[in-house]
Amino acid sequence: MLLGASDQDTVDQVLRVTVYRNLFESSTQRMPHCRCGYCHVVNNYYKNWSYYAIGARVHARVLSELNVFEAGSHLEVTPWYNQFNSDLTPTIVSSKDLFLKGATFHEFMKYGTLSATQDDYPAYKVPTVATNSLASLVSNCSGVLFGSKLDDCLASQ
């Protein structure tokens, strides 16, 4: 999930994206990876990523909020490697995330703190659930919903 066309596309500075209520299991990277703009990553369940879960560059602003990160072989949610001349211009902030099995989150605070109600999203609000019930909700409510899966989803709300 690469958001923002390229490092040179300044038009992406107006990008406003919400990544909401997804199950990411055994994925490699870019869940999402944001360039420029603002990305609100909220109420997602991450399990066993390979390289990294959330990434950003080129002045992107990413707020990770109320997500669950259950580590597998890789612990760092947002790794950054200086030996690769990494772009250190983004802001990546974690708010009320739950970290399991040793998962860690490296915050990049180039531009200060972020919130989902700042100028990026005036009067913005998505319905969220606490991290302790997120795994069940996302497992029941991801993908195509019909029959008993729809009933399970509605019951978990």
From TrEMBL:
Q: Name one GO molecular function term.
A: metal ion binding
**Record keyword Chloroplast present:** no
**Required cofactor names:** Ca(2+)
* Ranges in coiled-coil conformation: none
Q: Where is the Pectate lyase domain?
A: 1-144
Write out the transmembrane intervals. Answer: none
Cross-referenced InterPro entries? AmbAllergen, Pec_lyase, Pectin_lyas_fold, Pectin_lyase_fold/virulence, PEL
Please give the family membership noted in the entry. Answer: Belongs to the polysaccharide lyase 1 family.
Tell me the protein's name. Answer: Pectate lyase
Q: What's the source species' lineage?
A: Eukaryota, Viridiplantae, Streptophyta, Embryophyta, Tracheophyta
